[in-house]
Specification:
The complex is a heterodimer of chains A (about 110) and B (about 120). Chain A has about 110 residues and is mostly beta strands. Helices cover about 0% and strands about 45% of the residues of chain A. The chains are: A mainly beta (about 110), B mainly beta (about 120).
């Protein structure tokens, strides 16, 4: 399986940028990197995805390294409502195509 | 603007009882999924469906059955509930399978979960 490694927890001051890292060293050339987040007691919410170019949308920016072995999700101006668990996901290798959600990173945004 | 709706939101069962969780989506999605999430854990895929009338096993299918008789509904059944099945269950749907869209832009849409306790 294509595994991802994320720090279990991070914190960030409100108004500052939150940079959430993800390692995916076994990613293959045609696999996408997806980011989701899960706010307490809610279902996961799609944030952004990318293949090899950096991506930006209204929620966040995704920076993927040139070798594609790691990526960073950037929340440019974190708010208290961004406190959530953030999941970095890549498509599973081996043809099983079952998306895997790991434990993610618990981001706490404090005042 | 319903998206994915799960019914019920909460339920308490006794060991051995049976029940069915309902997931309904109004986005005309082909793919639907059932996950469970235990405290401190990520989501684990139980079963999924790639279209009306079809279902397949995920990572943790034992003790569960599913049916997809209508495109918009995906049912998860527990025939004989066990305490180990105490969990939060999430349903999701997507237009196509994950990153196999034209540009990978086929994210899953999730419901708000069903909290199930089995005593």
């Amino acid at each position: 399986d294509a595994k991802t490694t994320q720090p279990p927890s991070m914190d960030c001051a409100e108004g500052r940028a939150a940079n959430l890292p993800c390692n995916h060293s076994t990613i293959s050339g045609n696999e996408y990197v997806y980011w989701y987040r899960q706010i307490h007691s809610q279902g996961p919410q799609y944030i952004i995805h990318g293949l090899k170019n950096n991506e930006t949308n209204e929620m966040a920016s995704l920076i993927i390294t040139e070798d594609r072995k790691s990526s960073t999700l950037i929340l440019p101006h974190a708010t208290l409502r961004d406190t959530a668990v953030y999941y970095c996901i890549v498509r599973v290798l081996g043809g099983s195509y079952i998306p895997t959600f790991g434990r993610g990173t618990s981001l706490i945004v404090h005042p | 603007n319903a998206g994915v709706t799960q019914t019920p939101k909460f339920r308490v069962l006794k060991t051995g009882q049976s029940m069915t969780l309902l997931c309904a989506q109004d986005m005309n999605h082909e793919y639907m999924y059932w996950y469970r999430q235990d405290p401190g854990m990520g989501l684990r895929l139980i079963h999924y469906s790639v279209g009306e009338g079809t279902t397949a096993k995920g990572e943790v299918p034992d003790g569960y059955n599913v049916s997809r008789l209508k495109k918009q509904n995906f049912l998860l059944g527990l025939e004989s509930a066990a305490p180990s099945q105490t969990s939060v269950y999430f349903c999701a749907s997507s237009y196509s399978w994950w990153s196999q869209g034209r540009d990978g832009n086929q994210p899953q849409h999730f419901g708000d979960g069903t909290r199930l306790s089995i005593l």
